[in-house]
Amino acid sequence: MPHTATCMRVPLVLLLPAFAGCIGDPVWNFQGHVLDCATSGPLDGVSVLLVVEQGDHTRRQGTTSAEDGAYELDLIASHGWPGTLRFSKVGYEDHTRRLSNAADLRAQPERLCLVPLRAR
To answer: Can you tell me the mean pLDDT for 65-83?
Structure first.
């Protein structure tokens, strides 16, 4: 009597969650505060976005600043470089910085202020 093999199909999503790196990849914790340059007060709701382009793939990872202006982002090292770090909020000038490597990321100021747009 021939033996019949059974194949179990597992959804790929369970095996490779979005933005997961390889097991053992270092994770860099990046944090700071965003302030209003005019008042020096904290800014909540600021979008903090890291965009990394790797060949034909673009990876985006982001967060939003809290009421006290604080933000925190855990970045997986295997996402690679170069990248662009962008801080943005409606009513303020965007702050964008090109990053070549992890050292550039660590050199970001802990406190960053955004300039309010002038009323027209």
So the answer is: 81
Its sign, for the CA torsion 76, 82, 85, 86, is: negative
Contact 85, 97 (CB under 8 A): yes
Between 102 and 59, the more confident residue is 59
Residue 60 has pLDDT above 80, yes or no: yes
- The DSSP secondary structure of 20-61, one letter per residue, reads ---TT--EEEEEEEEEETTT--B--S-EEEEEEEETTEEEEE
DSSP state letter for 115:
P
Identify the residue whose tokens are 């170069």.
82
Q: Are 75 and 28 in contact (CB under 8 A)?
A: yes
- 30 C-beta neighbours (distance < 10 Å), count: 18
Please say whether the beta carbons of 44 and 33 come within 8 A.
no
Chain centre distance of CA 41: 23
